[in-house]
Amino acid sequence: MLNLLKPAVALTALPLAACVPTAAPDWLVLPANPAVAVRAPHYSAVTAGVARYDVVDPKDWRELNRAVTPKPGSGGMEGMDYSRMPGMNMPGMGGRRDTGGR
Hints:
By secondary structure, the chain is mainly alpha-helical.
């Protein structure tokens, strides 16, 4: 069994040995340059820049939605030609566009 294993290992190792580079890259072999300028270390707190979020009372979700809804005339979808948009003229809707249940 041992005699059969040696040629199998040799046949497997030979193609893998061809993939190994012959020399190390220059950037890995070169010594460090002592003339390079390095910034001095300084202390910075772990929590620097962290915003504090305290517990607040819940707000009315309707008012929050109205606050972020685009105002009329501010570049929304009013005045768009829905007939040229795929999916807006759905069968069974009687030619009406989907209003989202409103």
